[in-house]
Design brief:
The chain is of the alpha/beta class and 570 residues long. It is built from 13 helices and 27 strands.
């Protein structure tokens, strides 16, 4: 996490409230009550790839993050609805960092108290986020055992090595009950993100680059690359991206989050040159918690940046890189995104079964981060996964964090296109991608964690919980991919669909002259108002448990969006 060091002035700063806003009930998840002297319980992470080694030495170091509760949290949901509803006087009146910090952010006194409690317990404070929402700290395993009422253990994780976790349920002392919503990092087991990025098995092909002339305002160029994957023109035309109407995202910034590794500029330049695209926006990297962008040929980041630069060549791209995907790094990354408040939308191509890893994954902390993003006009976009209704291989499970109601969940399709690049058909199934038997295709289902959000009333297949996904874009292994100095695709997964929607949305922001913010409510309203003008319904396909049907379904959601029509609706 990019932090500012705690000093005497910061810890002593007084909180000043401003910006009165209306009150209403919050739906932020709340943990169950633990024993009388403890505020809440932090469960034990159990995964089949994690094996017990033994008790962690008492002098070994544990790094963790403490996520502070927001002030006036009960007002957030209604305020988000107000700034996201067309016709409301507050529509698109997003908060600046100063406005957020003055009213909703944890107070300086709250921050000071948490820091002092940690220091008194023997921990060293490493830093705080600029929005006062996260304190990072470290200490010995013995200190962790004593303060969090647990016993730290060493474990061996397949393909990773020695890690640690709390071997028994940890609990937060009562003195922090009213100050803290979650603690992340009492284990550093890595999530194995699966089912969102796959390339067909084939040898590398020629990397010859065509000579090109100056880029035209609209996206054109070859329909396919030497690897057989489709070029940007197929999506730009097929889904009527605003770039085809002169809006290429110029002056606006999108975000991408990845665990370590980075693309190479020469690869993305070669990709753009082949298609005659000149990316005029800049690409910047921000590291979180010591993330190191030195690994070359990272597949996920290469796909994301090439997709965005190919479809929105005027947009700036900011890439957030954490060391690995542990729950602490994930929370710290997204808190950094909302604290920076630089990107207008951010796509994320990973996820796991929402009901697994309950001892580690912290729904409450990340949910309030998504709320902060919505108040600032930041759109969070997540892939729904490629294993159909069986996220991460677990039967009838939807992926997290795509299940959160403040996230746009992107499912996927297989498309057919002719030699002119015209899309002639699409389906929600692609069981052959990468030679891996997913069992189906587009991730989807009903959340067991989050209740049905109001914007899905009257549309959802099931009222039992949040329905996933919201909409879809191409995801089968049909995208061209230039990596490691050659055309090594085609590649795909909902890892392609998420940045593709990110590119569309940033162009929509240029059309609007403002951020779109939390668009879920508007997406469902647009479907009811304009129907076929905004979304192309996908009528064929299955993801195992569910089938594509007329209207909203649990395979491809509302269908595939037409960017120009959606921009005009918003």
């Amino acid at each position: 996490m990019s932090t500012s060091r705690i000093g005497a002035a910061l810890l002593a700063a007084a909180f000043v409230a401003s910006m009165a806003t209306p009150a209403f009930a919050s739906t932020t998840p709340v943990r169950g009550v633990a024993p009388a002297d403890r505020a809440f319980s932090i469960g034990v992470l159990n995964r089949p790839d994690v094996h017990e080694v033994g008790v962690m030495p008492g002098n070994a170091t544990v790094q963790f993050s403490v996520n502070l509760k927001y002030q006036h949290a009960a007002e957030l949901d209604r305020d988000i609805a107000a700034i996201s509803t067309k016709g409301n006087p507050q529509y698109h009146h997003f908060l600046s960092n100063a406005q957020w910090n003055a009213y909703f952010a944890p107070s300086a006194r709250q921050l000071q108290t948490v820091a002092q409690l940690l220091q008194r317990a023997g921990f060293q404070i490493d830093g705080v986020a600029s929005n006062r929402s996260v304190v990072t700290a470290h200490g010995t395993a013995a200190s962790v055992n004593r303060y969090f009422n647990t016993t730290m253990h060493l474990v061996s994780q397949d393909r990773v090595g020695i890690r640690y976790r709390n071997g028994s349920a940890a609990t937060l002392p009562l003195e922090m009950r009213d100050l803290v919503i979650g603690v992340t990092g009492l284990n550093n087991v890595q999530f194995h993100i699966s089912g969102v990025l796959h390339a067909r098995t084939k040898p590398p092909v020629s990397s010859a680059i065509h000579s090109v002339t100056a880029a035209a305002p609209a996206i054109g160029g070859p329909v396919t690359a030497p690897d057989g994957g489709f070029g940007p023109v197929v999506l730009a035309n097929g889904y009527d991206y605003p770039v085809q109407h002169g809006f290429n995202g110029q002056g606006h910034t999108v975000g991408v989050s990845i665990p370590s590794g980075f693309f190479t500029y020469s690869d993305t330049a070669a990709y753009e040159a082949y298609y005659g695209i000149k990316h005029t926006g800049h690409v910047k990297v921000e590291t979180v918690d010591g993330g190191n962008p030195v690994k070359q040929y990272d597949g996920e980041s290469t796909l994301d940046v090439e997709t965005i630069s190919g479809l929105a060549p005027g947009a700036n791209v900011q890439v957030y890189i954490a060391p690995t995907w542990t729950v602490r790094y994930i929370n710290d990354t997204f808190n950094q995104v909302v604290a920076d408040n630089t990107v207008e939308s951010i796509s994320n191509s990973w996820g796991w079964c929402e009901t697994q890893d309950a001892g580690d994954w912290d729904n409450a902390s990340i949910h309030q981060i998504f709320q902060q993003g919505a108040m600032k006009g930041i759109t969070f976009i997540f892939s729904s996964g490629d294993q159909g209704s069986n996220a991460d291989g677990f039967p009838n499970c939807v992926a997290s964090p795509t299940d959160d109601p403040y996230v746009v969940s992107i499912g996927g399709t297989h498309i057919d296109a002719n030699s002119s690049g015209v899309i002639t058909g699409q389906t929600g199934s692609w069981p052959d991608c990468g030679g891996i038997a997913f069992g189906a295709g587009s991730g989807g289902g009903v959340s067991a964690i989050y209740p049905l959000p109001s914007y899905q009333n009257g549309v959802a297949v099931s009222s039992a919980g949040r329905n996933v996904p919201d909409l879809s874009l191409p995801a089968d292994c049909e995208d061209s991919w230039y990596i490691a100095g050659g055309w090594n695709g085609p590649i795909g997964g909902t890892s392609w669909g998420a940045p593709a929607f990110n590119a569309m949305l940033i162009e929509i922001n240029q059309v609007l002259g403002s951020r779109s913010g939390w668009v879920n409510q508007s997406l469902y309203a647009a479907n009811g108002t304009f129907g076929k003008a905004v979304f192309k319904d996908v009528l064929k396909g299955t993801n195992g448990t569910y089938n594509d049907t007329p209207g909203y379904d649990l395979v491809t959601g509302l269908g595939t969006p037409y960017g120009w029509a959606l921009a005009n609706y918003l």
